Amino acid sequence: MTGPPQLVAAAQVNAGDTAWMLIATALVLLMTPALGLFYAGLVRSKNTLNTFMMCVAALAVATVMWAIVGYSIAFDGDGPIIGGLGHAFLNDVTFEPRDGTTIPHLLFMAFQATFCIITVALVSGAVVERMRFGPFLIFAALWSVLVYAVLAHWAFGGGWLIEGGTLDFAGGVPVEMGSGFSALAAALVVGARKDYGRQALLPHNAVYVLLGAGLLWFGWFGFNGGSGFSTGNSGVLAFTNTLLCPACTLVVWFALDLVRGRQVTAIGAATAIIVGCVGITPAGGFISPGWAMALGALAALPSYAVIVWRPRTRVDETLDVLAAHGIAGLTGILFIGFFAQNSWNGVSDGLVYGDAGQLGWQALAALAAPTYAFVATFVILRVIGLVMPLRASEGEEALGMDVVQHGEEAYVTGEGAVLMPTAPDGERPVKEPV
Predict the structure, then answer these.
(1) Which domain holds residue 226?
(2) DSSP single-letter state for residue 412
(3) Is residue 251 part of a domain?
(4) Three-point CA angle 288, 30, 102, nearest 5°
(5) Nearest to 39 by CA among 28, 57, 51, 56
(6) Domain presence at residue 419
């Protein structure tokens, strides 16, 4: 489970904790359409709907796969690599409290489902504007079980990382590093857009991007604050740190933009919010507010550097999921190893406070999770590619994925209607509502 491995003795549902977790679950679910808005603004207008629909697909496919088998693999049993099948099809997932919490097992499952959903949606950012929708649906189903559920078991569900001592409060391993390094693999397998490196592929709506980022930050208070599974100190600490860390990332990002280009960009500001939220995700309940502010400032540096560097390569990882999630998540995981404080978290100290071993376990997670995510994603997409083409043709890509994959467009000329050539009776033109 997410959060510190503490401290609930009696198996009794607490109404206050349950009420908070119902709200937190809804907040995290909101993050997926918010991500759709964020991603849709970053692509060209002809791919707006398709990009958003990949996030909608995650809502559907990941939820179903989680209920059928993903939750069981992640949270049933204590095998070092994967869980069991005791909770397949939500068997024995009832109103009784989940072990180690004061909330119903059903609610615990639902909260964890929202994490799987958003992570699948995150990976789509690597392949938008050219991956076909059908193969993406298959990929989402397989990836949610074979990658996300396995990493969640390692970090939260009794697997080898959490049992060894790795600390991950709210998803640095399965969500952030899992999505970021899977995105890199996906970009390499699917390949670059046809115009990549030949013309500027610019975001079409910065307002969407900013609004999406703001809604994501809002949802992140449930994402991190809910990962204490109660209204107790760990959740309050994570909630507060989720306010402080991204604000500091924003300030440093502004400075970097000014130094580099003498202008603070809206896209940069939105990206900074995401980087700060990602950085504090693994560390939220383990470090003090002061260190959370320091982490926010620090996390901006490597992510900014990767975002600046990546377009100079041949890797078309379209929306910089690697930089914003993989690198920022890795930064947060390692930061715990240095600056975790038992006086704040009641669990462990980091190197600065006397426990060098904690840094070792954090470093091991920072190596193992990206490696598994990258390799497994690469293999999954290669196998799907043997059965069906992963990407649209150049002609379809030029026309736009909205029309080709969905038969719709995000933006229609005229006053919200399409002028048809003739009425059904052939006498006069009519307008068909869009």
Answers:
(1) 15-397
(2) -
(3) yes
(4) 60
(5) 51
(6) no
